[in-house]
Amino acid sequence: MAARLIAESPGPATQKSEPVSSVPPPDRSDDDSAPSLSDEQLEAFLREAAEGGGTAAPKEPSARARMVTARLRGQEEPAPWRAPQRTPKGDGRERRRGWGAVVGVVVLAAVAVIALRPSLVTDRLPGGEAEAAASPTPLPAETARPSGAPGQVDRSGGPTVEHPFRGSPALRWADGADAIELPQAKAVAGMSKADAELALRRTKEFLVAANLDPDVIAGGRPEEALGLLDPEAQKDLLPDQRRGLREPSREYDPVGLFSRFDPDEVRLAGDVVKVRGRMSLAGGKPGEIKVHADYTFVYPLVKSDGGDHVERTIVRREITTLLLDPDRWHATRGKLAIHEYKVNTYNTACKLYDGYLHPFFPADRKQATGPSVDPYDRSGEMRDTPGDECGTVTRT
After folding, report:
1. Is residue 140 classed as helix, strand or coil in its secondary structure?
2. Measured between alpha carbons, how far is residue 314 from residues 57, 201, 352 in Å?
3. Are 244 and 288 within 8 A, CB to CB?
């Protein structure tokens, strides 16, 4: 499995001359200062006195206590001033009530845990473990350069046509064009916020047309992507790209900007390409909006002539586009110029310049001799070594 590096700088565009609440105290207006006794208490006191007992006369409860006692007596008729009685035959009703409260607390706790980690249940359903592995929680969008490479992933199962990203960090990446999120636009370089929005949008359109269009991936001409480029700002870029598509060579290699595979050799496994990266906006010279994009695309592929063995080719691209003010620059309104671009491709043949990427399958692999690289590591700068450099990949 090889890594290949390409870097290009198409050249500059041409510039023209130019309040606290309080809690009230409890209402004690219904308390009586005079004591009173119930008939039962008075009878018990007189009986003990007649027998010579020394029991002191019981104190009379207040009117509030009598009211509460009466209300409780009206709800259920327990013996006064005694602990709750067990129901006849000891059927354990109170015990069941106690267990009911405990069970209720346990159920609530279980619901809370499942809400936080539904996989605890779904993974134990028929097929749940496989489905969870195939559709894990997606990563949040990348907003800054990562501090390191993604962690290792369980690769024991390996990719299949049904699950082409299994065993890859890309399994948690977003799908296709949805992964390319635009940053907040703002006025820069003497151009409006609307201009900045257009520059961002056009850059995304170019990335999608050049790397995610199914026809282009299948070896077709990237006409939509070419149609976004400015023929006025860079006189040579479009002719050079068209020449590379017509007569590819080491000097004119269309894979520098476009992800294309030979349709007679391979086809996409499914219809999903995984993508991860970020985009940023900056101002250049007056009348020049710069958009920098850094994205990695992961393509799962199978042989065109049959078979279900899946291999993945990984392409990382950096591209800086320009949206130029036609009043200040020789430029076409709404079109993009390309300031520079770099591409690193992984698990693809080196020193082959036919306008396509060629993934390695087991029968194609030879002993590699170049430096080892992790194609999923987005923490470092892209290398701009010319395309002859070849190395090995640690995973795909």
Report:
1. coil
2. 94, 24, 17
3. no
